[in-house]
Write a structure and sequence with these properties.
Structural class: mainly alpha
Radius of gyration: 27 Å
Strand order of the largest sheet: 1-2
Largest sheet: 2 strands, antiparallel
Number of domains: 2
Order of helices and strands: HHHHEE
Length: about 150
């Protein structure tokens, strides 16, 4: 075999190796991403955490206002109400895997997602602003699936 033949063999083995790598990369990515998939419950816990963070930031901002500010007390009351609603939604979320029948879990998660969205929407509103109402299936801090 001459030097040219050795180059061809090396080139051929390199191409085969590249094909193997190109075949394995999508498989590895699928396994890596599939292993990191979040359940609906996990996604809602993350949404709850984001809403809570926004709520705390807004509460800190309002607390930094002068005590004489006419809207300060009303804003704090509004934020406290939202905090109680968030706590009730979080209790509902924790209860879903344990207490909600499997056939109603998607509905429960839909209601909780809308509840978290509504709380988040209502955070920046002032006392005179019209708040978005909570979902009908989340009434008085209770998850109603019937």
């Amino acid at each position: 075999m001459g030097p040219h033949a050795e180059d061809l063999i090396h080139l051929s083995s390199t191409r085969n190796m590249n094909r193997r790598i190109l075949t394995l990369v999508p498989l590895a990515l699928a396994l890596a991403l599939g292993g990191c998939a979040f359940t609906r419950h996990d996604q809602l816990r993350q949404q709850s955490t984001r809403v809570e963070t926004r709520l705390k930031k807004e509460q800190s901002r309002v607390l930094s206002l002068a005590r004489e500010d006419a809207e300060r007390a009303a804003r704090l009351d509004h934020l406290t109400e939202l905090r109680w609603t968030l706590s009730a939604a979080n209790i509902g979320l924790a209860a879903v895997p344990r207490l909600v029948p499997i056939d109603k879990r998607d509905l429960a998660y839909d209601v909780l997602e809308e509840t978290y969205d509504t709380i988040d929407w209502n955070i920046p509103l002032g006392p005179a602003d019209h708040a978005r109402p909570l979902p009908a299936r989340f009434n008085a801090g209770t998850l109603n699936l019937d």
